[in-house]
Every structure is written in C-alpha cells, then in structure tokens.
Design goal:
- By secondary structure, the chain is mostly beta strands.
- It is built from no helices and 11 strands.
- The chain has strands spanning 2-7, 10-13, 18-26, 33-39, 45-52, 59-61, 69-74, 79-84, 93-100, 116-117, 121-126.
- The strands form 2 sheets. Strands 2, 4, 5, 6, 9, 10 and 11 form a 7-stranded mixed β-sheet that branches.
- A hairpin with a 4-residue loop joins β7 and β8 (79-84).
C-alpha cells in the first residue's frame, strides 16, 4: 500500500506563496497518478491539480488555479509538490494529496478514482 504525508501548509497573506509537499512511501511503484484536492469547510473535495507518474509527466489544473499553482514531482524522492503563488483568500482550505494507479487524464478530477489519501494540510490565506 501507498502512504501519503503532506506538509507545508500554514498561514499566509493574500498575494503570498506556499509550497506543499507530499511524500509517498510503501508500494509506490503502483502509483501512476498523483493529485492535489482541497476541501472547504462543509463542502466536498475539489480537484486542484494532477500529475502523471511517467517519464514525461502530464499535468492538469483546475481553472481556478491555472497560472498561479504549479504541480511537480521528484521521482527520486517519491514526492509531489504544489507551488502556490498569488494566493487568494478563497484558496483557504484543507489540501489533500491523493494517489492512484493509472488513470486516463479525463478522470483525474474525480475523487472516487483515488484510493490513497493523505491526512491533509491546512492553508489559510488572510487579507
């Protein structure tokens, strides 16, 4: 099984930046897609970004974060990152890392497709 541990959340002013990390351990060879989701209080989890675990990775972003967030990975460290720039108050949420076996990109945004989740890390953006 794959275990995921997120870190890097915190409090930042609007316009600032944060970088989230997600370290995968365990049977990481079974992971083909990794993603970030976020959850607002009382709401369902929303897709943020995803990256394929291939030699030439593909990426995908939610429209709300395009141009501001960047997902990347370090295969040697089994780590996925989410660089968040130009943060807005509406980015305040709990951010979760997720992993799955191979998924076609058309299904990357669907929470039900991911079978491994981290514990979440809080990101709070203040005015």
């Amino acid at each position: 099984q794959v275990q995921l541990v997120e870190s890097g959340g915190g409090l930042v002013q609007a316009g600032g930046s944060l970088k989230l990390s997600c370290v995968a351990s365990g049977r990481t060879f079974s992971t083909s897609t990794m993603a970030w989701f976020r959850q607002y209080a009382g709401k369902e989890r929303d897709f943020v970004a995803a990256i394929s675990w291939t030699t030439s990775p593909d990426t995908s972003y939610a429209n709300s974060v395009k141009g501001r967030f960047t997902i990347s990975r370090d295969s040697a460290r089994n780590t996925v990152y989410l660089q968040m720039n130009s943060l807005k108050i509406e980015d305040t949420a709990v951010y979760y890392c997720a992993a799955s076996r191979f998924l076609p990109s058309t299904r990357w945004a669907q929470t039900a497709e991911y079978n491994r989740w981290g514990q979440g890390t809080q990101v709070t953006v203040s005015s």
